[in-house]
Amino acid sequence: MSEPRVGVYVCHCGHNIAGTVDVEHVAEWALNLPNVVVSRENKFMCASTGQEQVEQDIKEFDLTHVVVASCSPHMHEKTFRNACARAGLNPYMFEMANIREHASWVHANDKDGATNKAKALVSAAVSRVIFHEPLEPMQVSIRPETLVVGGGIAGIQAALEIADAGYHVYLVEREPSIGGHMAMFDKTFPTLDCSACILTPKMFDVGAHPNITLLTYSEVERVDGYVGNFTVRVRKKAGMVDQDLCTGCGSCWESCPIRIVDNVFEAGLGHRKAIYRPFPQAVPKYPVIDVPNCTYYKSGKCRMCEKVCPTNAIRFDMQDEVVELEVGNIILTTGFKLFDARRVPNYGYGRLENVFTSLEFERLTNAAGPTEGKIVLRDGETPPQSVAIIHCVGSRDRNYNTHCSAICCMSSLKFAHLVMEKTGAQVYNFYIDMRPLHKGYEEFYHRIMDEGAQFIRGKVSEITDAARSPEEDGKLVVVCEDTLIGQQRRVPVDMVILAAGLEPRADAQAVGYMFGVGCGDTGFFTERHPKLDPVATVTEGVFIAGACQGAKDIPDSVAQGAAAAARVLGTISKREVALEPIRATIDEERCSGCRICNNMCPYHAIDFIEEKGVSRVNPALCKGCGTCVAACPSQVITGAHFTFDQLMAEIDGILVDVLSDQPIVEAV
Amino acid sequence: MSDNGTFTPVIVGFLCNWCSYRAADLAGTSRMGYPATLRDIRIMCTGRLDPTFVLRALQKGADGVLIMGCHPGQCHYQEGNYKAIRRFALLRRTLRQLGIEDERVQLHWASAAEGVQFAQTVARVTEQIRQLGPLDWARNWPNEDPYAVEEAVHE
Q: What does the pLDDT look like over A312-346, one tens digit per residue?
């Protein structure tokens, strides 16, 4: 091999780097590093002029390797790889030194320190890059089928977008019906549209769509494979009803003698039968039998539903069914869990009977709910004269969740409107800050103020039934410091609504683990980039949308569902996707067959070839973590682009004595 | 390199691509200051960290090594950081036998959202190594042959 010829480019990034790092000095100094034949500075390397400079130099100086010292490789590595490729150089013969995020921006008060660090990082990159080898991205084909996990509004939107574009979608939902939280709501803010009226047509479309296979009452058990070629195992729980025969007529649940408190759909306020469908507009229309509560499974008697079923659709011996789906992409839309208001003991939920959660109130005010839409106290008949709505319950509170739940301000305003409209009661909103930040929200806030709702700024310390005066007698007293007047207040009311926050699902971590998606510090799924890539994840082919990614309202969930669908459709229409060639390979000639690496791999990508007595990596399954590379006692596993030689050279290079250009040890 | 009072250590960092390298990026984007002592190397996962790398860094003049990865349970590759924990425990035993103080080689976690924690960790580790003074291991290392280190590890 001829001598390597390295080109170094040090970026000013306007003042972002040059304001702290002595860019000219770094560029000049880099010229003395081994193998460097050209070293330049540039105002903006990512601009077309910067990229063209690289391309021109590759041709003119016959460069074999390129180093750009600028921002994070997560920002512009692709940009410069492409520039190299345009000039005919393999894109992997490039290395980036991050002297912005990791130097100029964090050492603004230490210009010498920042400059020295920049020099060390450039030296490391130059030292490493000469060990780079040309790599070719792996092309894998994309199956056109998509899996959507979670049938709330985000999942419905994603499924419909993809199905309407002509591709097949499997929609998996844990409950017996799709619809999610939105199906439980009465009205939606700020337009006060009836939630069911705008949701049910979409649910119906999903149920009837020829391109959608609906798997309700089902859960994903296992995911194998990689982008374009996932194999997903789904357990269809036995609903004990033959869906080919059932017409959804309702005779079974009308005759079922068992009444059970419905903690899921009716938030504990209403009842359902042991054979049930969650709500009248459920999709699919078929009921399921709640086995633990069914008399037949307890005592072997009853079978009432079987007797009345006109089509003989009841199957008491039905078993769970496990199906395997082959899909190219996966969208997770698993939604949120409502904060359990019992965790705030001083608010008395569960102890003081007229303290309600927001979801309970949604059911209370819903015309299809347990009170047929009448807003009444827990006794089921008395309308309240006065109602307090407590914002930020379990949100923006270090004791529970630090994040803002994003929807509670607006849903509280909606509750205020509904209470005033239906009962004429006086409404008090206790808020920390009002955050009505989307289109039409501020206007809605003003409308509710104009309608006469009271707003008290302060965090409620306690809700109590211990009266201190005759007017507090028999009331719930909301105790709060009104921070606008600087006084402690006690507000007696008949009913309290706690605007409980949105939390990640209890099993978010386990679900994320199964799909290769991490959870951030608030517990919601982590997106690839918080601003520029909000629906992709670090696992290629797995996308997230809706409230599983972070607390959000319906319009944002719909937008994300559609965005994730667009990303999936993009990969489907390209038919194949290029994977980073960062993969492990085993030198079979030198492999001793010890099999230590076999169990190291979290993706089961390493197989032992019995007849040869060696291990082999399946490049399609390998994700390039390098765990096996570090574990191999014979050092015969190569982790492409992070090889032993490359990293050793990087260590040697980074320990350059920045005052000369000698390695530190030699300079001692 | 002078006496302990004004000594500025050189620390080699090994940061995983998905969490701690991004935490460092976030510290940068958010302009959180920390000492310019860390010279960081990106690896895809702390599971890639061959203990040889740490010995090489110390041999070549680093005063300390800071390894950072995703929090346990949040590894992008599911369990690479658990592998790193185990290897680190063994490495630490070896380092103790060689007379290297525990503070010089440390393993910490930072999620991609923890720029503050990243900056604080670098500041804390820098201060600890500053207190210890220069390592000067190169002078004490008996064998000039760089591959002697690797062999020592693999034996």
A: 999 999 999 999 999 999 999 999 999 999 999 99
User: What sign for the dihedral angle of Cα A510, A513, A515, A519?
Assistant: positive
Is A651 within 8 Å of B50 when comparing Cβ atoms? no
* Domains of chain B and any CATH numbers: 8-138 (3.40.50.960)
Distance (Å, whole) CA B152 – CA B145: 11
* pLDDT recorded at residue A531: 83
Q: What is the DSSP string of A231-263?
A: EEEEEE---SB-TTT-----HHHHH---EEEES
Cβ(A613)–Cβ(A593) under 8 Å?
Answer: yes
DSSP state of B11: E
Whether B48 contacts chain A with CB within 8 A: yes
Chain B nearest C-alpha distance from A307 (Å): 51
Which of B14, B44, B52, B143 to mutate against chain A (most A CBs within 10 Å)? Answer: B44
Burial (CB count within 10 angstroms: exposed 0-12, middle 13-18, buried 19+), residue A546: buried
**CATH architecture of the domain formed by A139-237+321-335+505-578:** 3-Layer(bba) Sandwich (3.50)
**Do the chains contact at B70 and A518, CB–CB below 8 Å?**
yes
Cβ atoms of residues A241 and A314 within 8 Å = yes
Q: If you count them, how many residues does chain B have?
A: 155
Check CB contact under 8 Å for B50 and A644: yes
Contacts of A544 (CB under 8 A, 6+ apart): A331, A332, A333, A517, A525, A527, A535, A537, A560, A564
pTM: predicted TM-score of the whole model, two decimal places: 0.82
CATH topology classification for A6-135: Rossmann fold (3.40.50)
Binned at pLDDT 50, 70 and 90, residue B137 comes out as confident
Fold of A337-503: FAD/NAD(P)-binding domain (3.50.50)
Element (DSSP H or E) covering residue A656:
none
CB contact under 8 A, A107 and B136: no
Complex prediction ipTM: 0.91
Report yes or no: B78 at the A interface, CB cutoff 8 Å. Answer: yes
For B71-102, the pLDDT digits (tens) are 987 788 888 999 999 999 999 999 999 889 99
Tokens at A646, concatenated: 């490359």
Sign (positive/negative) of CA torsion A596, A599, A601, A604? positive
- Please indicate if any CB of chain A lies within 8 Å of the CB of B61: yes
User: What are A446-492's pLDDT values in tens digits?
Assistant: 999 999 999 999 999 999 999 999 999 999 999 999 999 999 999 99
CA of A356 vs chain B CAs: smallest distance (Å): 35
